Amino acid sequence: MRSLKKIYLLNIAFILAFQPSFSQRYMSKSSEITFYSKAPMEDIDAVNTKGTSAFDVKSGNIAFSIPIRSFAFKNKLMQEHFNENYLESEKYPKATFKGKVTGFKEEGGVQNVSAEGDLTIHGVTKKIITTGEFEFKEGKIFLKSSFPVALQDYKIKIPKIVFYNIAEVIDVNMGFEYTKAN
Amino acid sequence: MPHAFLEVQLRYRYITIKLLLLTLFSSVSFIQAKAQDDLLDMLEQQDTTSQTQRVLATFKGTRIINGHSVELRTPSVLDFIISHRFGRLNSGAYEFFGLDEANVRLGLEYGLFNKVNIGIGRNSFEKTYDGFLKYKIIAQTQVVPVSVVLFSSVAINTLKSPDPERELDFSNRLSYTYQALIARKFNANFSLQLTPTIVHRNLVPTTRQANDIYAIGIGGRQKLTRRMSINAEYYYRLNPDPEPYHDSFAIGFDFETGGHVFQLHFSNSRSMIEKGFIAETNGDIYNGDIHFGFNISRTFDLRADKNKK
Lengths: 182, 309
Prior knowledge:
The complex is a heterodimer.
Chain A: H1 2-18, E1 25-38, E2 43-48, E3 52-56, E4 61-67, E5 72-73, H2 76-86, E6 94-102, E7 109-121, E8 124-137, E9 140-150, E10 169-180
Antiparallel strand pairs in A: 1-2, 1-3, 1-10, 2-5, 3-4, 4-6, 6-7, 7-8, 8-9, 9-10
Chain B: H1 2-46, H2 49-52, E1 77-88, E2 103-111, E3 116-123, E4 128-138, E5 147-157, E6 174-185, E7 190-201, E8 212-225, E9 228-237, E10 248-257, E11 260-267, H3 274-279, E12 291-301
Antiparallel strand pairs in B: 1-2, 1-12, 2-3, 3-4, 4-5, 5-6, 6-7, 7-8, 8-9, 9-10, 10-11, 11-12
């Protein structure tokens, strides 16, 4: 039994010891997220510039937080419905992603990377794997990525009566610019 | 005996190693997850956007039932509202429970500026034309508890004078309504509105009736599903006419489907303008003088660059 205790102590020490050394953080300075829904009757697009992100260059850990209310539509009524009926932004105000980026080196030029982690939209969390572009330039990091979101996966229900209005899979594009955090 | 002892000891050691590996492995993935959560928490702490964000959709439509709600149309959006109030349900099978006798209001409402709506309408009841202006002065946020909208309308009764010898002056056909719409969305499902009201009638039939009627409206909605709610509305008159008029009461359902809002309701009021239903509702609810009615709202975006192809 004494050895069991030792193992746990060892583990706790391990957790504590390794944590600080992991961080070398970049914070997003500006961002743009757009999505596009192409359907027979109406094309719908929306832009959000209020998303934030943090990236740890040592570990590759990355996190995104996107306020749903900040998606701006041309048609404000559509925007209201998007918040009220589809994304239920009062109940689920943010979409988040936390995961890990792999396949990058801290050097210049555009690099293809992939990311794996948990995407949470509308209170539903899914494991996703996606690809993107990384560019290290003048102490900044530029990130570009696009991925499809199937509404059904996140329990976003489109009523039958307006089904023709909205695509079942939405294309999401994002661009983030990071600077080093102090 | 020693053999068995050895076996136990080996087994114990085996479990210990397994535990060691397991906890070591889980602590590595724990650190990983924790580091990712830390990043996310850091983002959440920085976020201050939710504090100043205006509350959306206190009500589904620009009407609770008969009366206006604090909802405004956004600039360049035109709302076409077709409303019907049928005859009394207690008028019997001969009148098909009121459905034979419909009165209609056709209305247009337009988002003029960010906080200003204007509208016009024509109600077949008493052949009345009306025009109104709504101005949002306070918007509810996380910090501000209520939304406040000022409402002002004028209505023109164009019925022919009952006495052909004596034509009514234009000014005697006018009535005015002033309201402060004060509403709070308590949560995603429940909203409540208080509506202090003054109705001014330029001409009243008898000297026993006051030109000004003061009333307080209370209305609310409770969402039942994401697209459907139950609404109720009551106007209490502080200085009612001695005529057999009653306080207006209405209960109904909202159904929303994209650009449309359907409102189906029952009310003891026939008129669809403020002076009519607030000051001069003549149905006695306890007598079963109830009218079925509906509002259908369809919005159009009038800007040149629409999202349509």
